[in-house]
Amino acid sequence: MNGLLAPILFAAGLGGIPLLPGATDKLTVQALEAVTQIAPHAAGERKIHTPSLTFSLRVDFSCANAAAASLSVGISDTHYRHVPHDGNAAFLAVIDVAAEQIAPITAGNFCVVGSAEDGATLLLHGVANAQVALRCTAGEQTTMRITSTALPLRLVCAASVDQERPAASD
Hints:
Elements: E1 3-4, E2 26-32, E3 34-38, E4 47-48, E5 53-62, E6 67-75, E7 78-82, E8 90-97, E9 105-106, E10 121-138, E11 141-157
Parallel strand pairs: 3-11
Antiparallel strand pairs: 1-7, 2-5, 4-9, 5-8, 6-7, 6-10, 10-11
């Protein structure tokens, strides 16, 4: 994997590159769930501020009659750029997103003090979104294919975690 941190290229910054539907180009993204532990909390709604989260994305791509020049992934304010080697058609992006870039999560009655079960889990779909852009070039011709996917997060109730230092804080 040849990945470099760099600003993601948005359509407005591409100056004249057409955003074509790319019916013959391929771009698919599969997101693996991130996981974090939370400590039990008092009954009632609670906003959880997660620690930094690591998201893993498998990206499959191809450019019809062109070369894949670059792939860009953006999650919140975290950006990742990948320049594929000739013949590559997939890669795994592992992206760390800072805690401040993830909105607080409401856990409701999951992992409540007194009834918290150590190791219980709750899967939340779409705690963030990843935007992925594929740029294909053939001579002077450039096309873009853009997609996005929701990023899942699995909360794990850690009833045995020291209450003074929870993995995710209120």
